[in-house]
Amino acid sequence: MISKTLQKAINDQIQKEFYSSYLYLSMAAYAESENLPGFAHWLRLQQQEEQGHAMKLYKYLNERGGRVELQAIEQPPTEFSSPTKMFEEVLEHERFVTASINKLYEKALKENDYAAQIMLQWFIEEQVEEEATASEILETLKMAGEKGQALLMLDRQLARRGMD
Ligand code: FEO
């Protein structure tokens, strides 16, 4: 049985993962409107991954005899001034999620909840990857710039996510 404190913290994390999903779907909509189908594809897959993160926590809480209590998800931004600014926001958001996962892990350590620690180690590793990927795309955008050929090439590259 999971403690009430950890149950609350996991429910809060479920909300953050669903918000991430909503945020990336909003970014995908922006990319569609900017005629960047590759960016939109990448962001839609990211949206699905975030739902997967939320559902992993949902399932875990049930398995531990906890109670899932879904919370309101606020409206994400709908406008992003450029692809570079958008990926700056992706990276910033992933850093925020990493900090939140780390706090959750600290709670599990404090409570000597070993099962929760093991489950959260997956998320800690996942966040390393999430930040690295966002950072790589952001660096490419900064180097290549946002005009013409370079942006088109990056869009094509992002369109291949999930196909290699
Ligand atoms: Fe679920 Fe992108 O962190």
From TrEMBL:
Pfam families xref list: Ferritin (PF00210)
Presence of the UniProt keyword Protein transport in the record: no
Keywords carried by this UniProt record: Cytoplasm, Iron, Iron storage, Metal-binding, Oxidoreductase
GO molecular function per UniProt: ferric iron binding; ferrous iron binding; ferroxidase activity; identical protein binding
Enzyme class of the recorded protein, top EC level: oxidoreductase
Main location: cytoplasm
Keyword Oxidoreductase (UniProt): yes
Residue ranges constituting the Ferritin-like diiron domain according to the UniProt record: 1-145
Residues bound to Fe cation: 17, 50, 53, 94, 127
PROSITE patterns: FERRITIN_LIKE (PS50905)
Protein location: Cytoplasm
Any GO CC annotation of this UniProt entry: cytosol
InterPro entries named in the record: Ferritin, Ferritin-like, Ferritin-like_diiron, Ferritin-like_SF, Ferritin_DPS_dom, Ferritin_prok
GO terms for biological process, alphabetical: intracellular iron ion homeostasis; iron ion transport
Enzyme Commission number(s) from the entry: 1.16.3.2
Reaction it catalyzes: 4 Fe(2+) + O2 + 6 H2O = 4 iron(III) oxide-hydroxide + 12 H(+)
Recorded family membership: Belongs to the ferritin family. Prokaryotic subfamily.
PANTHER family, per the entry: BACTERIAL NON-HEME FERRITIN (PTHR11431:SF127), FERRITIN (PTHR11431)
Functional note: Iron-storage protein.
Annotated protein name in UniProt: Ferritin
Taxonomic lineage from the root: Bacteria, Pseudomonadati, Chlorobiota, Chlorobiia, Chlorobiales
